[in-house]
Amino acid sequence: MRTLVVSSNLVDPLSTRLRGILRARVDEHGPAVAEYDDVENHLACAPVDVLVVVLSPDPERGLEALRQARRATTGYVLAVGQASESKLILRALHEGADHYLDEAELEAALDSALSKLQSKQDGGGPAGRLIAVLAAAGGSGASTLAVNMATILAKDHDKCGLIDLKPGRGDLAALLDLKPSFHLADLCVNVGRLDQAMFEKALIRHSSGIHLLASPQVFADTRLVSPQGVSQILTWARRLFSYVVVDLEDCFHEEQVMALRQASAVVLVSRLDFTSLRNTRRILEHLDQRGIPRSSVRLVVNRHGQPNELPAGDVEEALGGKLAHYIPDDPKTINGANNTGIPAVLKSPSARVSLAIGQLARTVLERRRASPTVAAKVAW
Ligand SMILES: Nc1ncnc2c1ncn2[C@@H]1O[C@H](COP(=O)(O)OP(=O)(O)OP(=O)(O)O)[C@@H](O)[C@H]1O
Ligand SMILES: [Mg+2]
What we know:
Strand order of the largest sheet: 8-9-7-10-6-11-12-13
Helix content: 40-55%
Structural class: alpha/beta
CATH topology of the largest domain: Rossmann fold
Distance between the termini: 66 Å
Number of strands: 13
Bound molecules: adenosine-5'-triphosphate, magnesium ion
Strand content: 15-25%
Number of helices: 16
Order of helices and strands: EHEHEHEHEHEHEHHHEEHEHEHEHEHHH
CATH class of the largest domain: Alpha Beta
CATH superfamily of the largest domain: P-loop containing nucleotide triphosphate hydrolases
Number of domains: 2
């Protein structure tokens, strides 16, 4: 393998160590070397398979060299820098690095990147269980339930993944009072160059143990969210966390269907009003058509107990299935929690609404007998 080390100082300890590792692992003749300013010239004369840019101690010039290298080679481009510099990591990936290696663990990081290069295999299947939360209609309370369920699961199991799959309209960071540096679109754009460790660094941790991947807040970024990106992100999340909660936008865009397909449980949140129930029925039919097993769907009534609701029995008959959970209407508790960015299950743990959400979180993954498919018992 032909390799090249690019650095501002080719004899500094880091570059020297890097050259030694490359020589021992993949390039017995010893890697070529180039200073930042020479990278383009070097690549024009001698193509390489793997190029490693050392970003320390001058990351700005290092990133410029990386940009030039990316333009000049189709080889594998690695960036080496500090793992604590999350902005630098993202910038390096934006500039075209295939991987970012932690300089403090150079040997292990390089080994892992090189073995990925040699066998582009991902290995190891996903293990965590995914709970997809889908609203029958806007404002049903899906985000509220997603955040609170994830909080309960994080408390019970030490940690929980939470993914905001509502590009441009995601509320989860606000509901947890978090200010994430990275979001779903950043990852989708770079997904081919990222690995699981990088994915983990893009999550923001909440004190409850939730690890959130937020959605992009700039509307223009929403088009960067791709089904391939989402699929890879969900796989990484399920490797990292035993439980992953996803707040969905809808049931028909391809990237949303990716999550529905991976879900062990689909929490379909509705209110007992006519429009919600009409939509619930349409969603159930659509899920059937897309091959999402009916046995994974849990019909959850939120804001239960409001005046003039439809009777639950009539609704069950219309839907041809059982309403699995009832979450009481409690504006005082829920508004008080949502408006302060503290999940209700933490802020008011003994409120009836919090207890009901806790029970939902703890039982939603229990195995059920398949409900009957939507029968045309009642014409909407
Ligand atoms: N059980 C509840 N009792 C009282 N109010 C609730 C309850 N659940 C949610 N709400 C309120 O309903 C409103 C909508 O909640 P939320 O944002 O969670 O819904 P959503 O389905 O995610 O909406 P969107 O369509 O915007 O994504 C909020 O004002 C929230 O405080
Ligand atoms: Mg929402």
